[in-house]
Write a structure and sequence with these properties.
Layout (H helix, E strand, L loop, with lengths): L2 H53 L46 E2 L5 E2 L27 H5 L3 H15 L9 E4 L15 E4 L15 H13 L5 H10 L4 H4 L19
Antiparallel strand pairs: 1-2, 3-4
């Protein structure tokens, strides 16, 4: 073979090698782009997790979601509120129109558990019953004034889109004060519409109050556990007594210092 063909063959071999290397580089770049995309996505996800994990300002308590593991009507862990205060301040409510009522088959109103998951009073525990909710006058001692709750009620009505007369609705503690509910945590208060059979202008007609009184009596008599009663009232106040086997329970004796439904 002459020298010329050999040179041509060597040149061709070099060109093929360069072309193969180029293809390999393109393939790596493509793989790298995909990998790079994953890294970007992962980085973005981490940034998002970091922001959600506490670097950003925390959401107001009124917009807090239901506790982890909680689905509508099924409470898991109820939030703990700040407890009784020497002086109460008007609490911010969820944004207007962000809360929705639920209703039982009998058309009894239930709150939106995203907005109103309930909140407990940290001073009331199974060990402190005798000096707190089972003591006459306790709820009167910790109740916020109407100067505070009246303004909160108006704002909360907007949160739930309630259009009826506020005189016919009750600004209700989901977990009542007599069951160890927090006095002024916005997660524990909602504008409760009238129950079926209500006469317009007659004021609230709230059968939930009777359920709460019976639950208090059962708690103080040792017939049920405080936390179980709290969870039952949050889940569905209309089924709380039956869920705890307390259908025949009588209401607690009226506390002369307490308001109806406390």
């Amino acid at each position: 073979m002459s020298t010329t063909p050999r040179l041509a063959l060597a040149a061709a071999t070099v060109l093929i090698a360069v072309g193969a290397a180029g293809c390999s580089s393109d393939s790596d770049t493509g793989s790298g782009s995909g990998s790079g995309g994953d890294k970007t996505s992962s980085s973005g996800s981490k940034a998002g997790n970091k922001a959600a994990g506490g670097s950003a300002a925390p959401l107001p308590s009124t917009t807090a979601s239901a506790p982890s593991g909680t689905s509508a009507g099924t409470p898991d862990a109820i939030p703990t509120g700040p407890g009784p205060q020497g002086s109460y301040t008007v609490q911010k409510q969820p944004a207007p129109g962000t809360c929705s009522y639920r209703y039982t088959a009998a058309k009894e109103p239930l709150p939106d558990l995203k907005c109103t998951p309930g909140a407990t009073n940290p001073k009331v525990t199974q060990a402190t019953l005798k000096t707190t909710i089972c003591r006459s006058g306790y709820t009167a001692d910790i109740r916020p004034s109407t100067n505070i709750t009246g303004r909160e009620k108006t704002a909360n009505a907007a949160s739930y889109g309630y259009k009826g007369s506020l005189k016919d609705a009750e600004y209700d503690h989901l977990i009542s004060l007599q069951l160890g509910g927090d006095p002024n945590d916005p997660r524990n208060l909602w504008v409760q519409p009238p129950s079926p059979g209500h006469k317009e202008g007659a004021g609230p007609n709230n059968p939930k109050d009777v359920v709460e009184s019976k639950l208090k009596a059962a708690i103080c008599a040792g017939k049920t556990d405080l936390v179980k009663a709290q969870k039952a009232i949050v889940k569905d106040w209309t089924t709380a007594l039956s869920a705890l086997g307390l259908k025949d329970q009588k209401p607690a004796e009226k506390d002369p210092k307490a308001e109806e439904g406390e």
